[in-house]
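To the structural biology subgroup,

Please find below the input and predicted structure for Adenylate/guanylate cyclase domain-containing protein, which we are adding to the shared reference set this quarter. The sequence is reproduced verbatim from the submission form. If anyone notices a discrepancy with their own records, reply to this email rather than editing the shared folder directly, so we keep one authoritative version.
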Amino acid sequence: MNAKLESRLRYLAAIIVAGAVASIGINLVQGRHTIGPLMAGFAYALVTCVAIGGVELFILRGPMMERLNRLSFIGLLAVRSAIYAGIIIVIQLLQVGERVAGFPLQTSIADFGVSIAYSAAVSVILNLGFSIANLIGPRVFMNFVSGRYHSPVEENRFVLFVDIAGSTGLAERLGGIGIHRFLDRTFRLLTESVVDYRGEVLNYVGDEVIVTWPERLGAVECRPLRCFVAMRNALRKAAPQFEREFGAAPQIRGSLHFGPVIVGEIGDVKPAIVFNGDVMNTAARLEELSRKVDGGFLASRTAMARFAAAPPFPVHDLGRLPIRGRVDGIDVVGIGAAA
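Predicted structure (tokenized):
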């Protein structure tokens, strides 16, 4: 299955489960313990979550995504809230829950007024949830909600550092706003490959993006390596457009390492989920060394040994390279510029 479609379907399933659990919980708190009200509430939750989740994931984050990204946070909040409210009002007017549970249909204008007010409140709450998840990333959002990293844990992960070459010179020529637009366009394009190969963007740092995979996901089909190659191919295809708009096309270099990483929440005013450990430092230093090798990419032998199959393109052994912080150096391989 396509990685983007699989991700959206998982997200939709999570929305449906959350909505159903919330509906049952609200009914129980209000003292509605019989099967009829529970069925009605569940029907409303199911239809609402499927409708709103489907519109959000397959329309607002699909064909309309580029246009919506031009809006401010408040503007996007208003547009989404209006769309969600419209969907919920239609569902309320159809009285889906009453029909499923076999209850008499509502005819009172006052009842419909309450339903519309309920729809407005729910639409704002759902929209805030989607907006926050979109702002910090769905996986980070779910990790915060679930408390997965509230206490630090150790995980074996692939860590991919990708750096945009020559960005300092471009910044001088394009200016602050110009280089920001250049980097934004580049990172959006690179992120498509991250999604395709089931990676997770950890952070954007200046002209660099850090991507990670848990061992189980990254070992399949050499995903981190394939992701980097896909990034490079995507930039190659987009080069004419970048040349027309910015007078230069982005080039990337990168590094890949594997090992135990400490993952946990840090901070109080603005908490974040951060990754620490020697693996992060080594990957960063490999990225520095990648600037001096043909192909602009280095992968540690440690990472290569974790793949479940051989890479689908040639790699060449570069032997053991000296690296800052490691007395014995590190064994690495490279890939060609045309891989």
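Summary notes: Residues 167-196 form the longest helix (30 residues). The chain has two domains: 3-136, 151-335.

Regards,
Lab coordination
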